[in-house]
Design goal:
Strand content: 15-25%
Shape: globular
Helix content: 40-55%
Strand order of the largest sheet: 4-14-13-12-11-10-6-5
Largest sheet: 8 strands, parallel
Distance between the termini: 60 Å
Number of helices: 15
RNA sequence: GGAGGGGUUCCCGAGCGGCCAAAGGGAGCAGACUGUAAAUCUGCCGGCGGAGCCUACGGAGGUUCGAACCCUCCCCCCUCCA
């Protein structure tokens, strides 16, 4: 079965949309959030946990899985799905983010990126063709073009050059694609320069991809800039293809992205923050190590239906976290992932019931309070 | 009874005349995290709004311009010998 995307509904008051992605490993309802499983695992979760959180698709990473255990090994063992025992859809990032995050360990060349492995220092050349070869060997359902995730801040010239490279590589990725069952997404770069972003759309879209991503956001730029880019550029992407806002983000960022017409999101925030003890609820951000939870018998979130909230108190979770217990990471991650997935379910229901704008406004009101609360706590904490 | 070692801020532990409110851990408190080099990182951690002052290195005296550091006595702990 090959990849396809079906647009089910368009919101009348915003650009939000409801859709379905069909892959050979199952259907993904959009707008969707994709938990990040860089190394063939969503950190601390078993596949059945991911599933019970309601996640329909997860991420894997080309660079990391190529370095260890090696894409050929994974291919030999039956592909990434079998290897990690996750039988739902997988999207693999191309290594483009590592061009950014491993900035000190790589050199960008016209034909690809020379990496010094962060594991053992060995040299590895990742070209657009190689990135596709690796992703096809992994057998993920959606492949991403190798791009340069442009850092922030970057000058106009730097961003322009970076964009040119990303466009050039996008063409090479498309040419290198040899499988018809796997989807390939193009990535729009252009930094914080809207005219470059528009140029990126003009140059990437004609190459013809199964979906389009906005990349190079959430790299330290002000939130307003990210919002401006998302609002301006998303509508320029083909309406009949899925649109993916890469690396985003906080719950409010996701709601905002949906209102701009984004269909897919991924972010390490729910999983990483869970491991670091930050838990999301609809009304507050809970730093579980805080002394105030020492004797709190309530679940993290009364309204949450996750395994953690159904069975454990804040006091116990605080104890586990403070004690450095592995279970703290597991239970916290289950909660945060479920919280994100539930957010997506609520978003889809709101769009479906023609009340997304109200949902969004209400969400931002509450989110302001969440942010204000934590700002106030920071202030009193320091005073 | 004899010989030796030691008592430092919540805990462990360095310091052994001024650069010491006292290294370094731990604990405690708070914060950050956006296509994961992250079970990570950062800040605070005697008191007083601050320059500064006050209170602190077992207790009491003393030497010195100046003592956690030197001297005397006392209290307590540990090791070895009898």
């Amino acid at each position: 079965m090959s990849f396809s995307f079906q647009l089910i509904k368009k919101d009348l008051l915003t650009s939000a949309r409801l859709g379905k992605m069909m892959t050979s490993h199952g259907v993904v309802e959009t707008p969707a959030f994709m938990p990040v499983g860089t190394q063939g695992t969503v950190k601390s979760l078993r596949p059945e946990d991911i599933q019970s959180c309601g996640a329909q698709i997860i991420l894997g990473n080309t660079y990391h899985l190529y370095l260890r255990p090696g894409h050929e090994t994974i291919q030999k063992l039956g592909g990434l799905h079998a290897f990690m025992n996750w039988h739902g859809p997988i999207l693999t990032d191309s290594g483009g983010f590592q061009v950014y995050s491993l900035g000190a360990l790589r050199k960008i060349l016209p034909d690809g990126v020379m990496f010094r492995s962060h594991i053992d220092g060995s040299r590895h050349f990742l070209s657009p063709q190689k990135a596709i070869e690796i992703q096809e060997a992994l057998g993920s359902d959606i492949h991403m073009c190798l791009d340069e995730c442009t850092p922030y801040p970057a000058t106009l010239k730097q961003t322009e050059d970076s964009l040119a490279l990303t466009v050039k590589w996008a063409k090479l990725c498309k040419e290198a694609k040899s499988s018809s069952t796997h989807a390939l997404f193009g990535i729009v770069q252009g930094g914080t320069y809207l005219d470059l972003r528009r140029r990126a759309v003009e140059q990437i879209v004609p190459i013809g991809f199964d979906g389009y991503a906005l990349g190079g956001v959430s790299v330290g730029e002000p939130r307003e800039l990210m919002y401006a880019i998302t609002q301006d550029i998303t509508p320029l992407l083909p309406a009949e293809k899925p649109r993916y806002l890469m690396g985003v983000g906080m719950p409010a960022d996701i709601v905002y992205g949906v209102s701009c017409g984004i269909d897919m999101f991924d972010c390490v925030i729910p999983t990483r923050c869970a491991r670091h003890g930050l838990l999301f609820t609809n009304s507050e951000k809970i730093v579980i190590k805080n002394a105030r939870w020492r004797e709190d018998i309530n679940p993290i979130d009364e309204t949450c239906d996750c395994y953690t909230c159904r069975n454990y108190s804040r006091a116990y979770l605080r104890h586990l976290y403070v004690s450095g217990e592995i279970l703290a990471m597991i239970l916290n991650t289950i909660h945060n992932v479920r919280h994100y997935i539930r957010l997506m379910e609520r978003i889809r229901a709101a769009i479906n019931e023609n009340r997304f704008l109200a949902f969004k406004n209400d969400f931002f009101d509450k989110w302001d309070k969440v942010t204000k609360n934590s700002t106030k706590e920071q202030f009193t904490g320091r005073a």
